[in-house]
Inverse folding.
């Protein structure tokens, strides 16, 4: 039986960067084939080539055993290949069904047959377990559902091989699990899935075969059965990594941050924080766990001055932050690694240097009498790029040309090079590969060692357990658990995150 | 740098495309495009007087273009420059004919009033934009119509000079913006425009404030996160843009017309916005695009004399350029993400 997709010796260069170097990929029909590799390993490039978005410099593409040239995505779609990109392109004001059929509307005479489109969407949605309401407007839906719509779009266009580029990066754990079921459903109906990820657990959970890319080269293909996590990590990064709890001495310093009875509303004006209180000491990492949407985002925004709390107090070294501007709060000693780094964390269209400058453009020695010292900026950026191992040609490289891990390192380089006493770190390794994750974790521990007070918000429990001294669990806008991170288990945290409050914790949670 | 070149060549291609379409239109109205082009060039650059005429037309477009660049840089769209220009022109003329002051002081006072009038005229839209997030495009456009009518009312009903024409009394020579040559009205306004363009470019590229403005235009959420007060800054940017728009009116009143009159400076404000867009929001680039539009305007004068084509053909060509350039920006933005050099304006 011919392979569903075969890439032979694909090479793709971007100027001096070799994004793919003689990469081979053989995908069997009816299988979930994962492609894993660090950020910048060339996964997206390879998939863009298969989807006709990029042309390879060398190499051949075979689809169902037939050599094929894919000059554009239309040709790829015609060959039965569909791709779900990481960033969705849906029209917010149209309904789900209208989006699914955008550009290939079912017509009745001159008009769009909305009824037929809705029915067809509903059928497909049922067939593959992609639950959506065809007549709902997309603007009202969550990211997880938007992704289902993107998948439906691919399906109605007749794709038999579906590429998903880091689909879980935007999903909650629950949504990811549902996605995996859908993917298994695809292959059981004879379709083929190409699944891009850098999450080992996910790859091991959902795929049949994995191809590992490292620095643009293919370093191995393995069936998942019988493959250990350690082997896979070894292949990905070239050396073994442990995710164990980081050794430390107990933090005994004074409280740097004191938060008392903090309340805030979300964008819909519903209460999102309902009386949160805690302290962070010098040299202490306080972790915040919780299912996304339980107030963590609002907590981060309230602390950084981007959202006005409706009640309560935030003291940083004794100074009140509530009611002060983001600028004042930064000046008072906050550094902030935002959770949505492509939205808030960087200007993607600007250079690395320009991104490093943000927030300090008015301060010596970055500028003098209002004029930016460009040579200082260049030198500092170069130094930070070395110190944080940011892989890019130079300070003038545009941020959008970097991989996710390197973009995050730009944010860290900027925020960790301030004098701030309080680091607010939100999702430091989301969308970041293992090698960079390792480096980022080490960096956070170094900041702890320098006596900074750190609030670490993460959806990854292993990350919290590895780094935090204490872990707060948020549920429905409240803190429902305050646990010593040494000795806590993921199961324990999971129960609290689900809102199941054990007897002995009721006092802490303040729930009657 | 390569990407900037790409953006520039895209712009040039768009203009070329528009000119070719324009040639088709010229053929369609029964004229010879080559003859029209030669006449245009001759009208714009054929003699020292004509070159001066081109520069004279380019001056208000340049100053208005810089006003547009300032707001575009922050991601805001002051399209009411025409109105600010009318208000500024009237204010400067009023100071010019109502007071009698020593030479330099009179000129400076009149210019200051022009600036102030431009600021006053945009203050309301700027306030509503900042306070209630009201779209500044709509409110500044509306301001244009009001400005034209208000200045026209003041001119005809209150300050009209004796005689038949709808114009104010002439300003006193103490408030004149000096001319260069005896044969043209070309005046110091040109240098003011060039200095403003260079100054704006410097501020955008080298200063901390310019950085904050540029980042606000590129990614307002990032700017906000970095501690930039985007509301306050947006308000001030709109005022600054209005100030330069008002100054453009002052230059026209004090340097060219030496009075205020109905139909005082038709379309310079709009041409300025287009010149700025055509230059991709770059003040220095606006020097070139303003010159281009100035040449079109002054060349079109000879066009009516020497050919059967009407001056409106120039308006058609300008419209084609606008279409081609906006289509081109849209295409470039939609194209693969490796393209850069674009700023994200909301048209
Ligand atoms: N359009 C582009 N222009 C220049 N370099 C690019 C472009 N796309 C990707 N690259 C570079 O190619 C390499 C591989 O990137 P990518 O395929 O996105 O990696 P991955 O998806 O594995 O994170 C990176 O070093 C990236 O910076
Ligand atoms: Mg990628």
């Amino acid at each position: 039986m011919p392979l569903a997709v075969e890439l032979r010796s694909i090479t793709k260069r971007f100027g001096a960067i070799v994004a793919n170097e003689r990469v081979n990929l053989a995908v069997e029909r009816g299988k979930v084939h994962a492609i894993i590799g660090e950020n910048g390993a060339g996964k997206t490039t390879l998939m863009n080539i298969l989807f006709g978005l990029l042309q390879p410099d060398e190499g051949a593409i075979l689809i169902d055993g037939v050599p094929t040239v894919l000059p554009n995505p239309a040709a790829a779609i015609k060959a039965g290949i569909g791709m779900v990109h990481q960033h969705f392109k849906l029209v917010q004001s149209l309904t789900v069904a209208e989006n699914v059929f955008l550009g290939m509307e079912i017509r009745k005479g001159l008009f769009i047959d909305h009824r037929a489109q809705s029915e067809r969407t509903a059928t497909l949605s049922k067939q593959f377990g992609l639950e959506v309401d065809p007549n709902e407007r997309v603007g009202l839906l969550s990211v997880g559902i938007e992704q289902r719509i993107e998948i439906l779009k691919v399906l109605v266009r007749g794709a038999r091989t579906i590429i998903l580029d880091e689909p879980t990066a935007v999903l909650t754990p629950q949504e990811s699990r549902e996605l995996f079921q859908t993917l298994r459903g695809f292959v059981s109906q004879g379709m083929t899935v190409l699944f891009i990820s850098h999450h080992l657990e996910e790859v091991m959970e959902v795929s049949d075969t994995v191809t590992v890319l490292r620095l643009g080269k293919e370093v191995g293909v393995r069936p998942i059965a019988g493959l250990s996590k350690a082997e896979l990590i070894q292949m990905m990064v070239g050396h073994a990594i442990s995710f164990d709890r980081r050794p430390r001495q107990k933090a005994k310093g004074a409280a740097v941050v004191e938060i008392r009875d903090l309340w805030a509303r979300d964008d819909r004006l519903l209460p999102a924080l309902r009386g949160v209180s805690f302290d962070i000491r010098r040299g202490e990492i306080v972790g915040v766990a919780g299912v996304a949407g339980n107030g963590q985002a609002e907590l981060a925004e309230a602390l950084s001055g981007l959202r006005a709390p409706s009640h309560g107090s935030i003291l940083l070294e004794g100074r009140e932050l509530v009611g002060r501007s983001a600028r004042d709060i930064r000046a008072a000693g906050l550094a902030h690694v935002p959770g949505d780094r492509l939205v808030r964390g960087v200007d993607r269209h600007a250079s690395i240097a320009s991104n490093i400058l943000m927030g300090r453009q008015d301060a010596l020695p970055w500028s003098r009498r209002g004029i930016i010292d460009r040579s200082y900026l260049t030198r500092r950026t170069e130094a930070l790029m070395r110190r944080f191992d940011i892989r890019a040609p130079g300070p003038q490289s545009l941020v959008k040309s970097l991989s996710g891990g390197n973009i995050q390192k730009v944010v860290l380089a900027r925020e960790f090079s301030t004098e701030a006493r309080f680091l607010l770190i939100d999702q430091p390794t989301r969308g970041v590969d293992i090698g960079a994750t390792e480096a980022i974790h080490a960096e956070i521990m170094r900041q702890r060692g320098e006596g900074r007070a750190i609030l670490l918000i993460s959806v990854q429990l292993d990350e919290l357990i590895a780094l935090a001294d204490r872990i707060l669990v948020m549920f429905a806008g409240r803190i429902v658990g305050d646990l010593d991170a040494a000795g806590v288990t993921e199961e324990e945290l999971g129960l609290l995150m689900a809102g199941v409050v054990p007897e002995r914790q009721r006092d802490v949670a303040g729930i009657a | 740098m390569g990407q900037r070149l790409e953006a520039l060549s895209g712009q040039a291609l768009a203009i070329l495309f528009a000119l070719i379409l324009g040639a088709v239109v010229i053929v369609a109205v029964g004229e010879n495009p080559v003859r029209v082009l030669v006449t245009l060039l001759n009208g714009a650059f054929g003699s020292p007087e004509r070159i001066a005429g081109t520069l004279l037309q380019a001056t208000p477009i340049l100053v208005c273009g810089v006003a547009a660049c300032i707001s575009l840089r922050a991601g805001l769209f002051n399209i009411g420059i025409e109105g600010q220009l009318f208000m500024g022109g009237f204010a400067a003329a009023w100071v010019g004919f109502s007071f009698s002051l020593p030479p330099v002081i009179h000129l400076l006072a009149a210019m200051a009033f022009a600036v102030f009038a431009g600021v006053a005229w945009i203050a309301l839209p700027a306030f509503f934009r900042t306070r209630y997030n009201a779209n500044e495009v709509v409110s500044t456009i509306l301001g244009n119509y009001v400005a034209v009518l208000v200045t026209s009312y003041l001119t005809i009903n209150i300050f009209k000079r004796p005689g038949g024409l709808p114009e104010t009394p002439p300003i006193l020579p103490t408030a004149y913006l000096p001319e260069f040559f005896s044969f043209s009205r070309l005046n110091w306004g040109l240098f003011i425009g060039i200095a403003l363009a260079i100054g704006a470019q410097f501020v955008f590229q080298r200063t901390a404030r310019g950085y904050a403005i540029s980042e606000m235009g590129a990614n307002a959420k990032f700017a906000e996160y970095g501690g930039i007060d985007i509301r306050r800054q947006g308000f001030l940017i709109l005022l600054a843009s209005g100030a330069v728009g008002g100054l453009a009116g002052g230059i026209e009143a004090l340097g060219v017309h030496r009075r205020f009159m109905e139909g005082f400076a038709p379309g310079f404000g709009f041409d300025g916005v287009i010149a700025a867009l055509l230059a991709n929001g770059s003040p220095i680039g606006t020097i070139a695009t303003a010159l281009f539009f100035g040449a079109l305007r002054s060349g079109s004068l000879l066009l009516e004399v020497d050919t059967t084509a009407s001056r409106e053909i120039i308006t058609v060509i300008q419209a084609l350029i606008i279409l081609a350039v906006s289509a081109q920006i849209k295409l470039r933005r939609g194209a693969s993400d490796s393209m850069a050099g674009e700023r994200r304006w909301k048209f």
Notes: The interface with chain A takes residues 206-209, 211-212, 215, 218-219, 221-229, 336-338, 340, 342-343 of chain B (CB under 8 Å). DSSP finds 13 helices and no strands in chain B.
